[in-house]
Amino acid sequence: MTASAGILKGYRVLDCSIAMAGPFAAQRLGDLGADVVKIEPVTGEWQRHVAAGGAKGNKVNVSFLSLNRNKRSLAVDLKSPEGKAVLLDLVRSADVFLQNYRPGVAKRLGIDYETLSALNPRLVYVSMSGYGESGPYLDWPGQDLVLQGLSGAMLSAGRAGEPPTPAGQYLVDAVTAYTAFEGALAALLHRERTGEGQLVQVNMLDAITTLQMQELSVFTVAGKPQTRSAEPHAHVYIRAPYGAFATADGTIIIAFPPLRKFGEVIGEPSFLAMDDEVDAWSRRDEIFARTRERLVTRSTADWLQRLRAADIWCGPVYGYQDLVGDPQIAHNGTFVTYDHPTEGRVTTPGFPIKFSKTPSTVARGAPLVGEHTRQVLREAGYDEAAIDALLSRGAVFETPDAAPAGP
């Protein structure tokens, strides 16, 4: 693997984050070519020790592997004076500092925005939290499913009277990561124009709330209540039929078709005289039930062919095996495959943004703990004797498995 020549080449990011949202945001910056140095404890970041889905690796579990490519690892004890001094040395020449400690922890460690910006006024400091930097929920845990429940989003789908169904993704973590990524890029653009850095604050509650721009505006502006139906309608603010329906051999998605045309295709005469903007709302459960009765009579492939010929929005329901084998996914190059020194041949989702002149690449896989400690410290001006002294006192850590770092 060679160093990235992406659009952010020349920018250095210090990633002091853990779990998913912070590391994912930093990884996106690395994918665009930034030199991302993962600052982690000498025992390794929390995510190294907690494998999502129970998926372990040889030396790097899949959770960590998926969120930390295109980074170097500097393992340092920030609670030791010498370790903290190392980080402060790096801050002086860094472009972005990203952390998702609980509110107050960065201040206690002496690496809060006020402290670091005094060392480097050009620094873009991204602070991520669960609920904000202050307020009544300050000490609540910022966990994805907890935030899904708090956001109101779970009650926009499903059956009335039944428990809500959580998203099938770590939705809040992902949207928070992208919000932080966007904030970092915007602040870097501001710095290019003005020369000044700034504090960028992102919290999970605001991220998942603002993601629901349309839904919440329908509620706050139009006063439409969030009312679930007796049938498992897919969204309370979209007219029927809208959802996943069983076929003779699988499941199909139907997305608010014109009722008359839809009735003609599926052979449901009651739909022919219905008004899309009246009946599709007021008779939602009836329409859902009759759609379900009709669609179970034919195969998914048969319905897809008929409905697409009529220009009705529909699609299959995929599992991951179907997704990774999909021809459009292959055409887009959605997944990337590369060789990792300890995990072997790795295939993971790649880069959602395509740049014609500065394409994203996998310059390096997720690092081992402290794999690049010596390399990063050399670049910061430490000589070999000073690095050896820090290592011997436990202020920093270098994994025994790390390949010799270049000059």
UniProtKB/TrEMBL annotation:
Q: Does the keyword Transferase apply?
A: yes
Tell me if Cell division is a UniProt keyword of this record. Answer: no
Q: What is this protein called?
A: Crotonobetainyl-CoA:carnitine CoA-transferase CaiB-like acyl-CoA transferase
Q: Which domain of life is it from?
A: Bacteria
Q: Which PANTHER family match?
A: BLL6097 PROTEIN, SUCCINATE--HYDROXYMETHYLGLUTARATE COA-TRANSFERASE
Please provide an example of a Pfam family that matches this protein in its UniProt record.
CoA_transf_3
Its keywords, alphabetically, are: Transferase
Q: Which organism is it from?
A: Labrys monachus
